[in-house]
Design brief:
The chain is an all-alpha fold. It has 8 helices and no strands.
């Protein structure tokens, strides 16, 4: 398998970047006027995690490196975020932190898998559709709930354009990515998969 030539990120660099983002967002959340702003929820938004991990995967030279960089970034972000909250409030939500650290560890496998988005064929297109689906579901929820999270809509929209440009090898793969993303998003939103399994259980 041919490795990707792009090699812009390192785990150490992303460890620092995650720590900086975690600190900035945590500080932002301590401002009363910004406490409930959409930017204060970046560290807990699955959409932003999909955006960041997708960009990391696109610019990683090996699948294990994509996974390692994802884990380094998210773990540093979570630890620094809640460490600052602890410093300010004296409260450390252990269960919440543990949950997000588990997700940070799981992101190794996510980054490892998403790295194969650039492979040709249906499998590569399906893998490429995974982060797109997470982002699409977030966009759907924002529009449906009318939360006014316009910054997130812009970021997610730009990521979809970015991923279609840099993660695909040609028009055919982009069409396959689009097909999988639409199907997976509909399955998620309407619970078609759950309905199908429940129906099969009655047979």
């Amino acid at each position: 398998m041919k490795a990707k030539k792009s090699n812009r990120f390192s785990a150490l660099y992303l460890l620092g970047a995650g720590a900086v983002l975690g600190l900035l967002v945590s500080m932002l959340g301590q401002i009363p006027a910004m406490a409930h702003h959409e930017l204060a929820g970046i560290t807990s938004s699955y959409g932003y995690w999909a955006v960041i991990s997708g960009i990391i995967a696109v610019h990683s030279s090996r699948p294990w490196k994509a996974g390692l960089c994802c884990t380094a970034f998210f773990a540093a972000m979570v630890v620094v975020y809640y460490a600052f909250v602890w410093y300010i409030t004296g409260v450390f939500p252990w269960q919440t932190v543990l949950w997000w650290l588990i997700l940070a560890a799981i992101s190794f496998g996510w980054g490892f898998v998403v790295w194969y988005h650039h492979q040709s064929g249906w499998l590569g297109s399906f893998v490429a559709a995974l982060p797109l689906t997470v982002v699409a579901v977030c966009i759907w929820d924002i529009i449906a709930r009318q939360t006014g999270e316009y910054i997130s809509l812009v970021v997610f929209g730009l990521f979809i354009i970015y991923f279609f440009i840099f993660a695909a090898q040609g028009l055919v793969q982009r069409l396959r990515m689009l097909l999988f993303a639409v199907v997976l998003t509909l399955l998620w939103q309407f619970g078609i998969a759950s309905w199908l399994f429940d129906w099969l259980g009655t047979l």
